[in-house]
Amino acid sequence: MNAGDDVRREVAEWWATSVSRIEPGVIELRGRPIQDLLGAASITDVIWLLLRGERPSERQAALLDAALVASADHGPHAPSIAIARMSATCGVGLNNAIANGVNVMGDVHGGAGQQCLEMYTEIRDLARDGAGVAEATRSTIARWRERSRYLPGFGHRFHPRDPRRDPLVGLVERAVADGVVDGEFLAAGLAVEAAIAPVPMNVDGATAIIYGELGFPAPLARGLFVLGRSVGILAHAWEETQGGRRIKGPIPPSITPAYHPA
């Protein structure tokens, strides 16, 4: 073996991955030839496959699909969509408009699902250690409220009751009854909701239940939310490009911001 072979091996190992295999004439995702997936796997199946290394069951895929659909769009009220629409009028192209929308999804806008799943996981772990769900919920809520008066995944600035909550929770309840998932995260979510009533669970709280029940770690709750919301961002950015408006700002030109002298 010569020095050139050593360099090629080192570079190949530097980018080693188990996610995909790409060679001339070969595309494999987690060992599955792409030609076997085309027409046989949905995008939800492929998301699961790439993240988990295996295909989901039909019921697992249905739960993940529902969570992604629930996250897809929330109109220009959402900063990620408003920013994408404004970006689309600045001549930057759809890829930049989508990226700009995605890039504002942080701890406050877009991160609640991850935070909520972290909270549920604390409750689940304490309950497993013998605290019981009710006591685990009380102590976890107390710790989280030391950081903020807001509990991630509960309440909504726009909806008195999030219309996505009941269908998502209902899907999980049926999955628990059928033995598809074990129900620990569902129990945690419902316990938090009961403890802080009448503040209802929102879409982040409901999808966090789904991601937890499906075995996704908390950071992926944010990543999966971003995937779902990217669909809405694309649709809004594309619609905005079709209107012909240039340099759309956050308010119409006829309205000027109030001025408050320092």
UniProtKB/TrEMBL annotation:
<dbReference type="InterPro" id="IPR036969">
    <property type="entry name" value="Citrate_synthase_sf"/>
</dbReference>
<dbReference type="InterPro" id="IPR002020">
    <property type="entry name" value="Citrate_synthase"/>
</dbReference>
<keyword id="KW-0808">Transferase</keyword>
<comment type="similarity">
    <text>Belongs to the citrate synthase family.</text>
</comment>
<dbReference type="GO" id="GO:0016829">
    <property type="term" value="F:lyase activity"/>
</dbReference>
<dbReference type="Pfam" id="PF00285">
    <property type="entry name" value="Citrate_synt"/>
</dbReference>
<protein>
    <submittedName>
        <fullName>Citryl-CoA lyase</fullName>
    </submittedName>
</protein>
<dbReference type="InterPro" id="IPR016142">
    <property type="entry name" value="Citrate_synth-like_lrg_a-sub"/>
</dbReference>
<keyword id="KW-0456">Lyase</keyword>
